[in-house]
Amino acid sequence: MNTSTALALSLGLGLSAELFGATPPPPNILFIMSDDHAAQAISAYGSKVNQTPNLDRLASAGMRLDRCFAVNSICSPSRATIITGKYSHLNGVPTFNRFDGSQPTVAKYLQAAGYHTGMVGKWHLGSDPTGFDEWSILPGQGVYFDPAFLERTGRRVIPGYVTDVITDLGIGFLERRPANKPFFLMLHHKAPHRSWEPTEAYRAEFAKRKIPEPATLRDDYATRADALRQCRQKVFEDLTRHDLKLTPPADLKGQALAQWLNVKPTEVEITVDGQKKTLTGEELNRWKYQRYMQDYLACVQSVDDNVGRVLAWLDQHGLTTNTIVIYTSDQGFFLGEHGLYDKRFMYEPSTRMPFLIRWPGVIKPGSVQDALAINPDFAPTFMDVAGLPMPADMQGRSLVPLFKGQRPDGWRTSFYYRYYHDPGDHNTRAHYGVRTQTHKLIYYWKLDQWEMFDLVRDPDEMRNLYSDPAQQELVALLKTELFRLKKELKDDDQYADREPSAGVDGAR
Ligand code: CA
Q1: What pLDDT sits at residue 9?
Q2: Residue 21's pLDDT is what?
Q3: Distance 100 CA to ligand 1 centre (A)
Q4: Distance 59 CA to ligand 1 centre (A)
Q5: Going by C-beta distance under 8 Å and a sequence separation of 6 or more, which residues neighbour residue 68?
Q6: Under a CB-based contact definition with an 8 Å cutoff, are residues 495 and 88 in contact?
Q7: In terms of Cα–Cα distance, which of 96, 102, 92 is closest to 131?
Q8: CA of 2 to the centre of ligand 1 (A)
């Protein structure tokens, strides 16, 4: 960083591109993040359930991270971690808390260093975005059709399908950007978040498909802690009539309608070839999984289309060469693995984030990286890309060396995870744990129960080895590592039994 950049940062001043000095200006950063898009629903990750040709373009022209994880697998906490580079206990968002926008964020640092910064789409942090030259956010979760947006100047409704509209707003930001500055755009899709509402065209197309079931859909939870049995995020038991898009009786209104939609049905009447048929038991279970996945994947397809639309726009405007494009999701998602939907748990389908990055001239096309990456790394990475020093209080590391195909000495061999929202919306038990390259140890502190998995021999995490006499030496080592990380990251249990403020759902 040159002296004038450092001075401007210390004074909080904006800079124009010429102040980046004699070196070429840093690249633009287009950070595209969807909500709840699991890696196992991206064909570049070997999806068995769908095809995502536009996301695959990023993978073939750039790099796929195979071990990138959220350190608290739920929406608002992941977003707060991404912009601060800090774990939940230090950024004040362990659950759905209002984000204190006065704290430092990577957007503020980039803006002060001369980037033109924008935030478009799902924000879900309860306070107005700070550090952005322009922002246009969904209120709370937002809606799929004719969504409202909050902006500095007020609220406006934009007709259309939310994934298309967010893309339009992102392209609008790019079209208006000052030509003499690099840009940093966070383009955040709402899809494919529950309640999985696709466009009519994709709904109809996916309704005809038969989606393969995952091997662990009928997991019996043997050997595992009570948390899996207790949670209410099960495909067969917990999807509501609303989730399943069942048609309510025409005369229901208001509260009665809401109650009807919230029922978790144990029998469903469908019409096949003009004949009415009542589904129950295993037949109903199979049907529920199909309904869930058809709509989820139909939502993903619009995300893929719209990523393609932005990539085409970059091509048409000569911006492809000097723009880093990242595609990720705020966490993973259960697509029926362990019989579940939603996220929260430290199991692989939920904590693993897809992460695809194209960076022409720096990343070797078609490369794959399996070093452990975590979402606190994103902010330090953006700082590094911009040529800025990493602030001492960020807890991640720049991923830039990994992008270059290197594995620096001392790169992490484990990471710390902590989920707080208990009982939350799905009666999911709070837990913390450690994952290494080969193993995972999970502690459900309110249950005082443990799980340990061998991820090499048991990648589906079906056999809890915590009580296996042959594993006790390894369990002890993992415990030592867990508490070493917990201390190093300054997690002193400050949010273990309380949540600092009311939820933000429904607010911004
Ligand atoms: Ca999410």
Answers
A1: 44
A2: 54
A3: 20
A4: 22
A5: 328, 352, 353, 354, 355, 373, 374, 375
A6: yes
A7: 102
A8: 38
**What pLDDT does residue 8 have?**
42
Please check whether residues 243 and 349 belong to one and the same domain: no
66 Cα–ligand 1 center, Å: 19
Residues 130-164 pLDDT 10s: 999 999 999 999 999 999 999 999 999 999 999 99
- Per the domain annotation, does 122 fall within a domain? yes
Residues 449-471 have pLDDT tens digits of 999 999 999 999 999 999 999 99
Short-list 8, 28, 11, 135, CA closest to 508: 135
Number of domains in the chain: 3
Examine the pLDDT at 20 and tell me if it is beyond 90.
no
Q: Contact, 357 vs 324, CB < 8 A?
A: yes
Amino acid sitting at position 235? V
For residue 78, report the distance from its CA to the centre of ligand 1, in Å: 8
In the reported structure, the alpha carbon of residue 471 is separated from the centroid of ligand 1 by a whole-number distance in angstroms of: 34
Whether 283 and 326 map to the same domain: the answer is no
Q: Do residues 301 and 387 both lie within one domain?
A: yes
Among 405, 440, 460, residue at a domain's last position: 405
CA of 330 to the centre of ligand 1 (A): 5
Q: How far is the CA of 318 from the centre of ligand 1 (A)?
A: 32
Residues 118 and 161 in one domain: yes
Residue 491 falls within a domain, yes or no? yes
Where does a domain end: 361, 388, 405? 405
At 385, list the tokens.
Answer: 């890309």
Ligand 1 centre from 36 Cα, in Å?
Answer: 4
Same structural domain, 66 and 168: yes
- The residue range of the domain holding 262 is 209-289
Pair (60, 171) in one structural domain: yes
